[in-house]
Amino acid sequence: MDIDKKPAQEDVGDALSVAEGQMAAANGKPKPESLCQYSDHEIDGLIKKLVRKIDFFILPPIGILYILNYIDRQNLSAAKLQGIMESLDMNTQQFATAVSILFVGYLPFQIPSNLLITRIPRPGMYICCAVVIWGGISALTALVKTYDQLLAVRACLGIVEAVFFPGAVYYLSAWYTKKELGKRLAGLYIAQQVGNAFGGLFAAGILQLDGAHGISGWRWLFIIEGCATVGIGAICACIMPEFPYNSRMLSQTERDLAVWRMESEAGAAEGHEKESPLKGFLDALSDPKMLLLIFCNILSQGQGSIANYFPTLVDALGYSSTVSLLLTAPPYILAAFVYYGITWWSDRRNTVYPIIIALLSISIVMYIIPMSTDSVGARYFSMMLLPFASVGPQILMYKTINLHLARPISKRAAASALVNAIGGTSNIWSSYLYYDAPRFYAAFGTLMGCGVLFIATITFYRWLVRHENKRLDSGDPVQIAKVIKGGVTQEMVDLGWRYEMY
User: Fold this and answer.
1) Which of 151, 205, 213, 440 has an alpha carbon 20 to 30 Å from 450's alpha carbon atom?
2) Where are the membrane-spanning stretches (predicted)?
């Protein structure tokens, strides 16, 4: 729906949407000429309509693609239950290497990819091209005959998949304000949990084809899921829009509104800033907050590694492979609801710190249960809570990164990729922790330590950003200069920007 014609005044019924709209309209950034004819009340209504339109065109495709991303990444764990280790003559350590080698390609390629996406006019097309390529690579996994071939395919898969997650997070942050971003990031993680939940269900169904046409069940798994990814990726390439400033799905007035509301928070938006990707990368490296956020994400992704081995953990309960795959679904479905709840609360209350602490505290207790009892009921109870408690803090961490390191734009893109890439190294070493079933002492003990360190580190980060806010509030040019040196632009200072949510 275009908004070039001036609408009649209307009540904005959704209280949360009103808050989002009023935030942008109330800021001191001058309106573009095309919006000067509208009152602030009318701008609120226009923003509500704009956000709904953005949601319609962006969230479904990017959510579906993330589901495919996780299904294609996690199907190796499902294949383990159907005999891939025996077919390729692998031992437990070799299987762990096959899981972790994906991240050898995945991690380093995130940084150049995210720097590149800031200069590509059609980021949606760029992301979807990567989806089509990784779907083809995933399907080719069905052809591997040896362990070495599996390693080669998994390494290539990681390189291409490096485009998606940091690119998607940056892409969303280019469209949504601070009161909107949390729920949209949650949409990615909800899609992740849907991928985990239904990936297990799909795998359970596909694996019933074992022996059909002389093809093993685990090979069918890669063929069907890989080909589906190729087809859906090609369709989504025709749907996903560009950046706000050049989106063809918006009228000129809508484009002006989309850019203005982003600039009202932290300064120049995508396409309106001239700083080079290299300068943004160096800015990110020189920001002291980056080291703390990177360390937090190392700990968080270490905890999140549980998703890579969740079918193995559930299988340790002693059920058949099909039942184990089915039992992986309920924890992920619960996690999807919790993710939306915590991010709704975070956006509503403009807070993340107490939510992170609460989730980490739950996860620490849940790690203790499987190490201390053989009770199937108690262990499955902990597994019901662990997916959201272990992975939930990552959503709020990415919200923090994209709002606390907002500008320059190339810095935000570099920071998002750096934090995810270096933090993602946890997926390599953590792959070797999941042994000694059913209690998995090494895995759960290590993840419990990560949770404790995470609480300590994020608490120190909270103290640091609150200290920076005091400097900004002081009005002292010397103190403000120190904050600017620490990673805040002069334009952000002029707009009254502050480190929030902590």
Assistant:
1) 151
2) 54-71, 95-117, 124-144, 150-173, 185-206, 218-240, 290-310, 316-340, 352-369, 381-401, 413-435, 441-464
Global confidence as pTM: 0.74
Residue 319 tokens read as 């059920």
Give the Cα separation of 137 and 289 in Å (integer): 37
Whole-number Cα distances in Å, 477 to 346, 471, 482, 496: 32, 9, 9, 14
SS3 percent helix, strand, coil of the chain, rounded to 5, is 75, 0, 25
The partner residues of 351 in beta bridges, in order of sequence, read: 501
Q: What are the angstrom distances between the C-alpha of 286 and each of 26, 174, 249, 291, 411? A: 33, 23, 37, 9, 10
Partners of residue 450 on adjacent β-strands: none
For residue 268, the model assigns a pLDDT of 52
Res 358: pLDDT: 96
Residue 3 carries which DSSP code? -
Amino acid letter at 299?
L
CA distances from 280 to 168, 399, 413 (A): 18, 19, 8
Instruction: Render pLDDT for 317-344 as a digit per residue (tens, 0 to 9).
Output: 877 767 777 787 788 888 889 988 998 8
What whole-number distance in Å separates Cα of residue 143 and Cα of residue 138?
A: 10
Element (H, E) at 194: helix 178-206
- Structural domain containing residue 203: 15-267+274-494
Q: Which residues pair with 501 in a beta bridge?
A: 351
Terminal alpha carbon distance of the chain: 37
> For all residues of the chain together, what is the average pLDDT?
82
Using CA atoms, how far residue 177 sits from 39, 258, 267, 317, 326, in Å, is 20, 10, 12, 44, 38
For 377, other C-beta atoms within 10 Å of its C-beta total: 8
pLDDT at 197: 67
Question: Please, what's the b/e burial string for 49-79 (b: 16 or more CB within 10 A of its CB; e: otherwise)?
Answer: bbbebbbebbbebbbbbbbbbbbbbbbbbbb
Q: Residue 321: how many CB atoms within 10 A of its CB?
A: 18
Look at residue 5 and tell me if it is in a domain.
no
What CA–CA distance (Å, rounded) separates 71 from 193? 10
180 is a domain residue:
yes
Give the pLDDT confidence score for residue 156 in this predicted structure: 92
Which of 302-311, 380-389, 453-462 holds the top average pLDDT?
A: 453-462
Distance (Å, rounded) from C-alpha 99 to C-alpha 79? 12
In a domain, 395, yes or no: yes
CATH number of the domain enclosing 53: 1.20.1250.20
Cis peptide bond N-terminal to 438, omega within 30: yes
Q: Give me the pLDDT at residue 276, please.
A: 67
Q: For the chain, what is the domain count? A: 1
